[in-house]
Amino acid sequence: MSTSTKDKQGEIEAVESLLAQLRAAIEFGGTPAKWIKAREILDRHDIAPGKGQLLVFTEFADTARWLHGCFADAGFSVEMLEGAVDHKARHELQQGFLANHFQVLVSTDAGGEGINLQSAHVMLDWDIPWSLVRLEQRMGRLHRIGQKNDVFIYHLVAPETREGRVQG
What we know:
Oligomer: single chain
Pfam families: Helicase_C (PF00271)
Domain Helicase C-terminal: 40-168
InterPro entries: Helicase_C-like (IPR001650), P-loop_NTPase (IPR027417), SNF2/RAD54-like_C (IPR049730)
Number of domains: 2
GO molecular function: helicase activity; hydrolase activity
CATH class of the largest domain: Alpha Beta
CATH architecture of the largest domain: 3-Layer(aba) Sandwich
Shape: elongated
Distance between the termini: 43 Å
Protein name: SWF/SNF helicase family protein
CATH superfamily of the largest domain: P-loop containing nucleotide triphosphate hydrolases
């Protein structure tokens, strides 16, 4: 067998191995590790459907929509704030959250500035922004005058990702 043929055979085996891993992941339909960790955090803070509030930040609207569905499927009352939400609707979301009309607010960084959400005391950063200013802005949504509880902020980082390698 020539070197070229051996190289091609090695590549084929590597691709077949990767395909097998992908098929197994699809068949398993596994629960993402971050979602499992988020549920553990909710349990730790006694946040359950109908009880307690949570603020979740993500950088991406697609992720926010997915998280909205996850929380809704788990029985939480949930709303979403992202860049397409106009000023009036944004204000209504803020007021609704502060009045405890819903439990979970999933937000992109569109909700990271100029909005008070101190009715919650637990926040999840689903992904970490590269800008420390944005990170500080996110955390500032709960650290407000009128906050009655200790604030808990969790940064969810998957170790086997680019984000995990940077954090590690």
